[in-house]
Amino acid sequence: MASVETDTSETLASWGFRITVKPDELIVKRDVTAYDPRRRRKRALILSFGIALTCVLLVESFALMWRGTTGAWDLAFTFFWAACPLIWALRVLYPMVIDLQCTGESIRLTHMRWGKAKLTRSFAKEDIRRIQYIAAEPLFSPASLGFIAKGKKITCLTGLKCIEAQRILDELQRMGFDVVRNPAMPVMIQMEQSFRKG
After folding, report:
1. d(C-alpha 175, C-alpha 183), whole Å
2. CA 72, chain centre distance (Å)
3. Helix spans in the chain (H)
4. Which of 46, 93, 97, 146 is in the most buried spot, having the most CB atoms within 10 Å?
């Protein structure tokens, strides 16, 4: 009697990421449909703020131009600064996305911009050390997953939350990668769980 192969994959869509776990593969991709409703509101607020502030600055720029109180270079500089809030909002909401695909032999990172692959990098398992969750530093850098490959620091999965990071690290460790656990992770996970329940 022929054996029937069953699908043992598992997919979790949560907080901006889609995690697919298979016996011999782990795939983590940015998924804009997997945002929590509260996070969607926050993203809409950031975009609205960027548009509103840019509009206010543009109106002021046109007023200065109408009064003739600025030169051509001053006007160009003013328009540039007027566009900065909107540019900042778009960079925050739509950063360069780096998806992760891992097998027992390697990790492959695909740099995505506007849904298109721009660059793919692969790292052999023996070249990878100290895979870990890097907690966010407010106003400086968002949370991410990081590791060292051939002496270089590599980061991916920007915006990753600690609960999803824990699942990813568990799978990477199961596949035999060098995983470093952050001692503060249990506390971060408890806080994140409380936030999601509240």
Report:
1. 21
2. 39
3. 37-67, 72-93, 162-174, 185-197
4. 97
For residues 124-130, average pLDDT: 92
Average pLDDT over residues 118-128: 88
Q: Which residue has the tokens 């809409």?
A: 44
Spatial separation of the C-alpha atoms in residues 13 and 36, rounded to whole Å: 10
Residue 97 has phi, psi (to 5 degrees) of -95, 135
Query: Taking the model in full, what pTM does it have?
Result: 0.67
> Do the Cβ atoms of 188 and 162 come closer than 8 Å?
yes
Q: Name residue, tokens 């600064």.
A: 81
Count CA atoms closer than 13 A to 26's CA, side-chain side. 22
Cα 13 from chain centroid (whole Å): 14
pLDDT tens for 23-35 read 889 988 877 665 5
How is residue 90 written in tokens? Answer: 């778009």
